[in-house]
Amino acid sequence: MKPIALRLFGVPALLVALLVVATGCGGASDEPTSSGQSSGSADGGQTISLVAYSTPEVVYDEIIADFAKTPDGKGIQFKESYGGSGEQSRAVAAGLKADVVAFSLAPDVTRLVDEGLVAADWNTRHRDGLVSTSLVSFIVRKGNSKNIRSWDDLLKPDVEVVTGNPFTSGGAKWNILGAYAHGGLDYVSKLIKEHVRVQPKSAREALQAFTGGQGDVLISYENEAILAQKKGQDVDYVTPDDTFLIENPIAVTKTASATANTFVDFALSREGQQRFAEWGYRPVDKEVLKANASKFPEPKKVTTIADLGGWSKVDDALFDADQGSVAKIEETAGVSTAK
């Protein structure tokens, strides 16, 4: 039986209550039973609600189809919601039903821990809570006529840059961290104020803006560049010699069924990890990464969030909406920092 997927895209928190009512009227109940299991769909099967950031949708399409062919996945239905990582996390906190959450960065899971929706030890399970990694890279026009190779090239007088808004997009936070690791706040300020022309709310919308003709270069994930090429977009990409490691978490909520945990295990299995590799994500399974090593060259320098002191320190210093250094730069540039 092929899994049935109801998709929701970019769910603002203010619409969550309406969406919960609307999806509840669609014939499948999202409410957990008293045992903590997800209640069944109208035809008696279980439903897993997957809430994820925008970019890995194509991967989860394939993983869900593969899972449906296993004994554990037989008859399981899925409700899927994709959008900016921060927006998705806030929507779940506000009431959007989720059994499995797959976000761009760890603080979007931490928010749900603080809300009592995800167990505090989520990142001690399932390969430290990660399902994939990637690198901050530059997507450029085919042929790279402006010869963009490094972070300094983004500051050339005639270069216009596209990146997501870091206050709605987790991917954009990684982009800014790549810039920050390269040149500090002075570099970030010059980049945003003088070269960034548009900041869409999600990584996927940023890619759409770039492929639609805006800008000369898109700061993005390595996997987004590979996705664009696989879909026939006329682009090239460059990974700078000094870049940033993107770490993408996955977790189950406290009310999730055992089947939801099994699905996460499947996404982390060699079969699931190979699907990530095929779409340009760096697998967290070392054997799968080794088998796909030719796809993933190693830059000279890769900075991690741990190198900067961890997310708690970085979020407070850079991305706090009231006091963060990046927030102040964005406000000066006329960009909204509202979450």
How would you describe the overall organization of this protein?
The chain is α/β, with parallel strands linked by helices. The chain has 2 domains: 5-132 and 247-295, 3-Layer(aba) Sandwich (D-Maltodextrin-Binding Protein, domain 2); 133-245 and 298-332, Periplasmic binding protein-like II (D-Maltodextrin-Binding Protein, domain 2), CATH 3.40.190. Helix content is 37%, strand content 19%. It is built from 12 helices and 12 strands. It has helices at residues 16-24, 57-68, 85-94, 107-114, 170-194, 203-211, 222-230, 258-267, 270-278, 286-291, 311-319, 325-332, and strands at residues 5-9, 47-53, 77-83, 100-102, 130-141, 161-162, 196-198, 217-221, 235-238, 242-252, 282-283, 301-303. Strands 1, 2, 3, 4, 5, 6, 7, 8, 9, 10, 11 and 12 form a 12-stranded mixed sheet that branches. α2 (57-68) links the parallel β2 (47-53) and β3. The longest helix has 25 residues, at 170-194. It is globular, with a radius of gyration of 20 Å.
Describe the main β-sheet briefly.
12 strands, mixed
The ordered H/E elements are EHEHEHEHEEHEHEHEEHHEHEHH
The number of distinct helices, counting runs of at least 4 residues, comes to 12
Say what the CATH topology of the largest domain is: D-Maltodextrin-Binding Protein, domain 2
What is the domain tally? 2
Unreliable residue stretches: 11-44
Q: What is the radius of gyration computed over CA atoms, rounded to a whole number of angstroms?
A: 20 Å
- Report the principal-axis shape: globular
* Mean of all residue-level pLDDT scores: 87
Can you name the CATH architecture of the largest domain? Answer: 3-Layer(aba) Sandwich
Tally of extended strands?
12
Helix/strand class: alpha/beta
Strand content: 15-25%
CATH top-level class of the largest domain = Alpha Beta
Give the CA-CA distance, first to last residue. 39 Å
Q: Helicity level, as a percent range?
A: 25-40%
CATH superfamily caption of the largest domain: Periplasmic binding protein-like II
